[in-house]
Amino acid sequence: MGEAFSALGISLPQLIAQFVNFAVLLVILRLTLYRPVLKMLDERRQRIAEGLNAAEIARQEAASAQANIQAQLDAARKEGQEIVANAQAIATRIETESREQAAREREAALERARNEIQLERDRAIAELRREFAAITVAAAEKVINQSLDPQAHQRVIDETLAESRFSGN
């Protein structure tokens, strides 16, 4: 077999030396280059996984924040609607109270006017009674041609007026 290798131009001791060199080189590369490269690749894989996890966590937090913001917007919208409803209710109540107050004031003014009319009527009736009494006295004096006692005459006039249609009206 040695001859077959020599015919091909291969030297067996040189081939063995190259195999030994290759094995030594393979061990050296494995210790110095292969392990650090694998370690670097593992670290990179781990960093990528951590980055993906962080991105997923950030996405979940963003979704949670978006849901929270939407809930706050809904709550603010509801609160705004409640404020508007309360303002409308207050405006309606104020309007109703104003109308009621105006009606009360109108009724009070009407009652004052009625009272003033009644007082004027009573004054007019009293004035008419006085004038009627004075005319009656004057007529009676002319008829009798004598002067009556004013106090007795007033008593007679008051009794007559009480019996007449002017007494209550």
Structure description:
- This protein is mainly alpha-helical.
- It is built from 3 helices and no strands.
- It has helices spanning 2-8, 12-144, 150-163.
- The protein is rod-shaped, with a radius of gyration of 63 Å.
- The mean pLDDT is 86.
In short:
By secondary structure, the protein is an all-alpha fold. The chain is 91% helix and 0% strand.
Distance between the termini: 165 Å
Secondary-structure content class: mainly alpha
* Helix fraction by DSSP (H/I, runs of at least 4): over 70%
The number of distinct β-strands equals: 0
Helix count, per DSSP?
A: 3
Categorize the overall geometry.
rod-shaped
How much beta, percentage-wise? under 5%
| Average of per-residue pLDDT values | 86
- As residue ranges, the low-confidence spans are none
Could you spell the SSE succession in H and E letters?
A: HHH
Q: Biggest sheet, in brief? A: none
Integer-rounded radius of gyration: 63 Å
Q: In terms of quaternary structure, what is this?
A: single chain
